[in-house]
Amino acid sequence: MIHTDKIASANEAAEAALRADYDALGVQLDRRGVDIEGVKEKVAAYGIAVPSWGVGTGGTRFARFPGEGEPTSVFEKLDDCGVIHRLTGATPRVSLHIPWDDADPADLIAKAEETGLGFDAMNSNTFQDHAGDPHSYEYGSLSHTKAPVRRQAVEHNLRCIEIGSKIGSKALTIWVGDGSNFPGQSHFTRQFERYLDSARAIYAGLPEDWRLFTEHKVFEPAFYSTVVQDWGTNYLIATELGERAQCLVDLGHHAPNVNIEMIVARLIQFGKLGGFHFNDSKYGDDDLDTAAIDPYRLFLVFNELVDAAGTPDFDPAHMLDQSHNVTDPIESLMNSAMEVQRAYAQALIVERAALEEYQEENDPMMASETLKRAFRTDVTPILQMARLEKGCAIDPLSVYRASGYRARIAETRPKSAGGGGGIV
Ligand code: LRH
Ligand code: MN
Ligand code: MN
User: What NCBIfam families has UniProt attached to this entry (predicted)?
Assistant: First the structure.
């Protein structure tokens, strides 16, 4: 994998400069009444799950250009995820997708132990057909007009729970592509009623200590209407199902210009924020690297999360969900995990008492400036120090590039074929 002495020698070369930067930032933050050590401890304790499907090269429906050394099994995916965590110390868990990652749970546990990882939420997949299944999802899954198709989709979800229970997962995320492409194709109300009935059957099979996350998305693959199209429908699902059903917010799944941080605040207020799929987008569900387009929006989401910290039972799951078309997926995922940490650290240094005062006194300029001041602060030394103290890399990208990991695995993993039909 990555040799510990490679990390140590790279860190040694960078440590003195880091300490100087960290001390200077500490003095600056101290003037604002912010304790840098407290921020660093929270950042160090923070972890985000990596999507197993993210370590393979993605693509679009036009083409996929596979990279060198693509993982060919869930076990090789876990190897790559292990590298990401070894270097960043920020990604202790992996979120699996079934049937893409179907394997004997005992083997999954063994590999997770070997790579120093655990498992996060399970993801079911009823947006494509599974080899050997009698029914097709072409016209929907949980909301399909035909009961046998719905039953097959429910059973698949129950199987995801069963696998997850054996590997230490505590949540199931359901995203369905169900919808319609033509006005009149589907009866909105009856279709949603069927979805709810199926979702209730899954919820009934949820272990006591599990949560069910439903994920909304405005369009795609359905291009006229989508059954779980926005947070309003998602909230209805979560309230219909029960206390352990919550909404998952994928940052790329909203109409353009939607105020996502406000949706986050609303869901928190009513105990229904289950978790996130972090990524970034310019136009739609672009699945670009987190913070590649709009880091301020990511910061504003984290501002809501930090503001709500301490709310009883507030424990959203944090996962990345991206598609890497033109970069090495390991590099993208490391970078994205660190961008999420950055947004978290920036939100932690917001001067909240001052912000509240400006809000009370209706001073929009100073309220906005208070947020901007935190956002403009370069918190990189905090992130780097947290990594150094964990024995991870001060600069994960350069250590990864110098390690030759990609070239090494490319020797043993067969080159995969390109083509169309990337993961959305
Ligand atoms: C749907 C989605 C959902 C899927 C993943 C592959 O667009 O965001 O989370 O499980 O992509
Ligand atoms: Mn998603
Ligand atoms: Mn998506």
Answer: L_rham_iso_rhiz
